[in-house]
Amino acid sequence: MADTALEIDDVSKRYGEVVALDSVSFDVRPGELFGFVGSNGAGKTTTMRIALGVLSADAGQVRFGGAPVTHETRSRIGYMPEERGLYPKMKVLDQLVYLAQLHGMTANAAHTSAENWIARLGLKERRTEEVQKLSLGNQQRVQLAAALVHDPVVLVLDEPFSGLDPLAVDVMSQVLREKAATGVPVVFSSHQLDLVQRLCDRVGIIRDGRMVAVGTVPELTASGASRINVSVPSAAPGWASGLPGTTVVAEDGERTVIELAPGTDDQTVLAAALATGPVREFSRQTASLSDLFRNVVTEEKPA
């Protein structure tokens, strides 16, 4: 099953009159880190649960390697739920060995894999402790180990970075990069958009159960407005007001922040700045994923 894609194809789900998912489609390619983002209640967890077979879709299909996902396929998927799905009174090592065996590993292979992931995720001193006695961050590490212990061919992770300290975030980020480098498709949801922007090859944004954007971060942000930081010590207040295709976002002393509409030439702004006297700074700031997300989720819905 190596080097195969996970495909979510035209998946819909309703709960009575509530449309949870409306023809959601995207794919997670082999060796790709795919960030799945959206506001609370947008449909991220529902999509992931359908991909795992925990929920059934009303329409559409989930495929892996071009074929519909079966029970056998699901046993090879590593899933990390947002709500921790661990047995609180089981010890860390015992739990991981048990879960690995549930996925079909032999006792010896399960034990070896569990010990490897315990060491890799910095849990060696906690291996014989009950999960309920661990900090929330360490419980999150155990949850990731549970998703990885059976050597999955796909990773589906719901808010894997929630509650982690910066060091743990770095460890988890490196683990996900390593799994993707072996050809495993990795999809994870997160509200930490700076982390998604830094880690992911592509990003999908879901809003009210519909996919509204899918692509690389440069592709998604290229169509958005960008900003120019200008420092003009001799300029009079309001010097940039009225320039075509621009909006003055902030003006503080000699520094002015100007937003450019898509297609606006920044040289127009530079010429206007030079006309006021010396220019100490003229730097362009491309829109971030956070900017794009904010615009997408707050824009008015079509009537």
**Integer tally of domains:** 2
Q: What is the residue-mean pLDDT, rounded to a whole number?
A: 91
Shape: elongated
Order of helices and strands: EEEHEEHEHHHEHEHEEHEEEHEH
Looking at this structure, what is the CATH superfamily of the largest domain? P-loop containing nucleotide triphosphate hydrolases
Structural class: alpha/beta
Rg over C-alpha atoms, rounded to the nearest angstrom: 24 Å
Task: Specify the CATH architecture of the largest domain.
Answer: 3-Layer(aba) Sandwich
Helix residue percentage: 25-40%
Brief synopsis:
Residues 6-233 form the ABC transporter domain. This protein is an alpha/beta fold and 303 residues long.
Give structural attributes:
ATP binding, 27% strand, ABC_transporter-like_CS, elongated, ATP-binding, ABC_transporter-like_ATP-bd, 33% helix, 2 domains, 303 residues, alpha/beta, Alpha-Beta Plaits
